[in-house]
Amino acid sequence: MDSVECRRLKILVIDDEPLIRTTLRRQLGMIGLPQSNIFESANAAEGFLETVQHRPDVVFCDIHMPMVDGFHYLKQVRKSADATLAATPVIMLTGDASESSVLTARSLSVNAYLVKPVSTKILQQSIERTLKATLIPMHRS
């Protein structure tokens, strides 16, 4: 596994619940990600625009949100004509543990599926598995 320096990663959190976004931001900071590299969206439509603009290394996306859900976001990303954008790693982070939602996410090529709440350790492990890398909190000489 390669090593990835945390402070170089860009993460996007798409969730309609401000408390969830705040909690994830805090947890990602505990892993070593700078707050300036963590982007947020309150819905999937804005999340897609943020994905295009910031090109995150990993996206954490809720499923059930008003207007546009996380499945629609994932479809939009995967069907992008831009191959780099289409390959954006997406981790579903949701309260929905139903088999049908897991299977739908899998059919849309989700990279991982986590059920809320998750520990900081699980977040870190899911990022590492998704990137196939070991996260290091700072530059090693």
TrEMBL record:
InterPro entries recorded: Bact_response_regulator, CheY-like_superfamily, Sig_transdc_resp-reg_receiver
Modified residue annotations for 4-aspartylphosphate: D62
Domain Response regulatory as annotated: residue spans: 10-131
Record SUPFAM superfamilies: CheY-like
Keywords noted in UniProt: Phosphoprotein
Biological process annotations from GO: phosphorelay signal transduction system
Residue ranges of coiled coil: none
Name used for this protein in its record: Response regulatory domain-containing protein
